């Protein structure tokens, strides 16, 4: 099954009076690369969220965004460092006695000591929170997968059309193959006659044998056979129920190699046009394959 690496999924969960939104986005990447952006007080669940991604996806750059709205998720508590405050009061008394100062320590003075008071957030119910986050994450991933599958179906149709075009061109090349070999043989004979300065005697078997050997080098039968095999392999790979992007990328490289060889063997104008058409279609296949998981 063809599955794109581009997708997006989102879901929300409610815990007490707070709303948690989870967004998952994925784009092309050679491997599976996961990045998270979570509130500091939710970092404890980061690895669990990443594991959920690894269970479902094989490739792609995946970004996870978690945002929290509302005040019911974490309870805020104020802590007072009485030990430090005792030291402040003691020092104030020392200063007062030493310099014969008047006045008492007031609440206003204490409230201005920023290091005396600290505010911390306490999870109201960690188990419930984790369960809600994981469930929301799973649903967001399902939405992302659905989008990747939908995009994959579109790519699958595009692949089939381009493979049909390539197959049609290969059939034209197959029909013209004998003519290509004959034209190549004639060009070799003409070149030899040009350098020899006279027409060759048909009975000169040694020369004709060499012409035949050189003509075989211009035969594209093997390249056409391998190209057909690569097209078949591409089609069958599209039906595999696994990550197929890397396999398809390799097949496209081999297709490109064979077409280049065909182009180097023929000087025929029509064949050259077909080779250009093949290269164009294969290049488009290559571009699309980069988005396949």
Keywords:
single chain, 293 residues, alpha+beta, Ribosomal Protein S5, domain 2, 3 domains, four-stranded mixed beta sheet, two-stranded antiparallel sheet, 8 helices, 6 strands, 60% helix, elongated
Kindly, what is the distance between the CA atoms of the first and last residues, rounded to a whole number of angstroms?
10 Å
| Domains, number | 3
User: Helix and strand succession?
Assistant: EEEHEEHHEHHHHH
Strands across the major sheet, in which order? 1-2-4-3
Shape: elongated
Largest sheet: 4 strands, mixed
Helix count?
A: 8
Average pLDDT figure: 86
Classification by helices and strands: alpha+beta
What value does the Rg take, in angstroms?
37 Å
Strand coverage percent = 15-25%
Low-confidence stretches: none
Total strand segments: 6
In which range does the helix fraction lie?
55-70%
Q: What would your notes on this structure say?
A:
- The chain is an alpha+beta fold and 293 residues long.
- It has three domains: 7-72 and 125-147, Imidazole glycerol phosphate dehydratase, domain 1 (Ribosomal Protein S5, domain 2), CATH 3.30.230.40; 74-123, no CATH class; 152-289, no CATH class.
- It is 60% helix and 17% strand.
- It has eight helices and six strands; from the N terminus they run βββαββααβααααα.
- A four-stranded mixed sheet has the order 1-2-4-3. Strands 5-6 form a two-stranded antiparallel sheet.
- Strand 3, helix 1 and strand 4 form a beta-alpha-beta unit.
- Helix 4 (126-196) packs antiparallel against helix 5 (205-217), helix 4 (126-196) packs antiparallel against helix 6 (221-238) and helix 7 runs antiparallel to helix 8.
- The model has no long low-confidence stretch (mean pLDDT 86).
């Amino acid at each position: 099954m063809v599955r794109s690496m581009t997708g997006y999924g989102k879901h929300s969960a409610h815990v007490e009076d707070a709303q948690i939104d989870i967004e998952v986005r994925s784009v092309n990447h050679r491997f599976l690369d996961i990045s998270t952006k979570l509130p500091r007080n939710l970092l404890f669940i980061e690895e669990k969220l990443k594991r959920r991604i690894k269970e479902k996806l094989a490739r792609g750059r995946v970004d996870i965004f978690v945002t929290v709205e509302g005040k019911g998720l974490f309870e805020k508590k104020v802590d007072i460092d009485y030990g430090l405050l005792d030291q402040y009061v003691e020092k104030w008394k020392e200063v007062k006695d030493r310099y014969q100062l008047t006045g008492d320590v007031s609440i206003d003075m204490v409230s201005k000591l920023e290091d005396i008071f600290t505010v911390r957030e306490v999870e109201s119910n960690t188990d419930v929170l984790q369960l809600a986050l994981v469930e929301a994450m799973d649903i967001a991933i399902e939405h992302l997968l659905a989008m990747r599958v939908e995009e994959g179906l579109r790519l699958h149709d595009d692949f089939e059309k381009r493979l049909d075009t390539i197959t049609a061109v290969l059939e034209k090349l197959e029909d013209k193959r004998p003519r290509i070999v004959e034209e190549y043989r004639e060009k070799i004979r003409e070149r030899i006659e040009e350098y020899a300065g006279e027409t060759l005697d048909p009975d000169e078997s040694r020369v004709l044998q060499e012409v035949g050997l050189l003509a075989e080098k211009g035969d594209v039968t093997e390249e056409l056979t391998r190209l057909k095999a690569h097209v078949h392999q591409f089609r069958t790979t599209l039906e595999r129920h696994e990550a197929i992007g890397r396999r398809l990328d390799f097949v496209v490289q081999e297709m490109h190699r064979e077409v280049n060889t065909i182009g180097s063997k023929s000087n025929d104008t029509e064949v050259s046009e077909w080779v250009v058409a093949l290269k164009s279609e294969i290049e488009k296949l290559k571009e699309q394959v980069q988005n396949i998981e």
